[in-house]
Every structure is written in structure tokens, then in C-alpha cells.
Amino acid sequence: MTLTRRFVSFLSDYGHSDEFVGVCKSVMLSLAPDLQIIDITHDLPVHDVRAGALTLVRAAQYLPDGGIVLAVVDPGVGTDRRLVTVDVEQGILLGPDNGLLAPAVAILGGAQRVVSLTSTEHQLPAPGPTFAGRDVLAPAAAHLAAGVDPSELGDEVDAAGLVPGLVSLPQHDEGGAIHGEVWWIDRFGNCQLNVDPDELRAHGAEPGGAIEVRFGEQARSVRWVHTYADAKPSELVLLVDSYGLASLALGVGRHARAARGVGVRARPGAVVAMRPGTTIAVAVLLFIILAAAFAQFVLRLGP
């Protein structure tokens, strides 16, 4: 059964040290008292549209059908960038048209209708232009929850004009390496990559096997394990995370927090090269062993 639009799932970079989140919720509840608000997160890095888009993608498929998603990461607040509503099959997304919404719209099946929020009748009087979350987006979300059709909030615009999200895809080189990217580091320090485990399998990697992982000039050998508890203390491992993507972890999920201790400096956006099979360290060791064996062989031959 499809739910009525009484849920607003709220995501922002507002944090909790200021009144911004509370004020936006109060505006919504004053216009739609029966509304239920789900806080996805408000601790996104400030003005990081990419981080907001990836967070929204991860959460979108688990939010109530028929609900509303309010997303606010808006470094262009007060400029001529658009604020929009986007109808998808499962509900409606609202936010700045700056790439924040587009990846979630795509994963939810694409935009069915896009409306630019231009109706001042459905906005709060604004003393200044720098709090669109309070003055434009929160009232719009509440009006939608109360049953107002998106067409009453502004002008319909071409869905193809939505600003695309800056979400990277892994690259492959001729040497058999996959060049991925750290998409996200969670509070436990686990590093989610933009690499599908099937891509690793296609390059010859298998669970239980070794994979060479390179951050810049630093190379590490990692084991492909089933879960965090399979990692030995301080061992860097790879596993499939709860979203079905390859993820790096150290020990029991403390990769980023302990990263400096093992010489790996991971951050969102960092490039990671992955190559299944023998790692550089192992190859060097084998070379040393073979070189020593050859030297012994030559000595035995004598002059």
C-alpha cells in the first residue's frame, strides 16, 4: 500500500550547534501539524554537495514510499540557482538544483516532473536571501505533505535540465588495475569505494584472495574477507559493505581512524588503484629469494 505524503525525510549540512534544523522543522510542523519528520543526517561536511548526493543515494531506497525528501546542501544560496521539486515514482524530492538530487532521482527511476519553486505565496517572507531552507524549501515540503500539488508551487521545467550529480565511476587500465575512489568514510572509519565487487571478480579476484591496493605511492596487500571480525588486529582488509560495494577496513572497522598508524591516508575523493593477485611487496620478496638462490647456484659452479 502506498503511504500518503505525511513523511518528510530531512537531510542537510546544517549540523546541530545552531538553530537551523529546529527552525526548519518548526516551519514544517506549523503548516502541517500531523507531519512526521525523519532525520537522515544533518552532519554532512559543510557545502559538500557530492557528500550530500552520495548520502541521499544510500538512503533513498529505504525511505517511505509516497513520502517527501527535503535535502539542503546549498553553497549557492541567495544566487540564481534554482530550488526544485522532483516527482519520482516513490514520492517527491526537494532541494537546490546543484547536483544534490540528481543521483537519487536516477536510482529511483528518473524524474517524472520537475517544478521550480517560484510561488511566493507558498514561501515565508524573507528578511534576507541566505536561509532558503527555512523560507522556501521547508514551507514547500509542508505544503506538499498537506496535499498541495507541486504545480501550485511554481513553474514546471524540463527534467532534462536538472544539474547532474558529480558521482565518479571506476576506471580500468591496460595493466589490469581498477582505479576507484573513496566515496565515503563512515563514523567507524570504513572506506566505501565506488567499485562493484563483480568488477573485482571480472579481474580475477575472489573472496579469500589477495588484492594489491595502492594509495598514491603507497601499496598494501589486502585480503578479501566476509566481515569486519575476520580481520586481524591492524590488518587492512576488503569486504562487501551493506550497500553492496567494495569497502576497506582496518582491524575491526577502524581504517580511517588508525590509518596513519599503517601509513594509509584515506579521505573522501582519494583515488585507490586495485589489482588482484600478487602484490608488489610479494613480488619484491620473490625477486630477492630468487636472486639469492641464483647467487648460491653461481657460487656452487665455481670459477
CATH class categorisation of the largest domain: Alpha Beta
* Helical percentage: 10-25%
List low-pLDDT spans: 255-263, 279-287
Instruction: Report, as a whole number of angstroms, the end-to-end distance.
Output: 88 Å
Strand content: 25-35%
What is the H/E string? EHEHEEEHEHEEEEHEEEEEH
CATH topology of the largest domain: Rossmann fold
Principal-axis shape equals elongated
Largest sheet: 7 strands, mixed
Structural class label: alpha+beta
Radius of gyration: 25 Å
How many separate domains make up the residues? 2
Number of helices: 6
What's the total count of β strands?
A: 15
CATH H-level superfamily of the largest domain: S-adenosyl-l-methionine hydroxide adenosyltransferase, N-terminal
What is the second-level CATH architecture of the largest domain? 3-Layer(aba) Sandwich
Average residue pLDDT: 87
- Side-by-side strand order of the widest sheet: 2-1-3-5-4-6-7
Report on this model:
The longest helix has 22 residues. Helices cover 24% and strands 27% of the residues. It has 303 residues and is of the alpha+beta class. The protein folds into two domains: 155 residues, Rossmann fold (3-Layer(aba) Sandwich); 115 residues, Elongation Factor Tu (Ef-tu), domain 3 (Beta Barrel), CATH 2.40.30.90. It starts with 6 loop residues before the first strand and ends with a helix. The strands form two sheets. The chain has a seven-stranded mixed beta sheet with strand order 2-1-3-5-4-6-7. The chain has a seven-stranded mixed beta barrel with strand order 9-10-14-13-12-11-15. Helix 1 packs parallel to helix 4. The chain contains six helices and 15 strands. The radius of gyration is 25 Å and the shape is elongated.
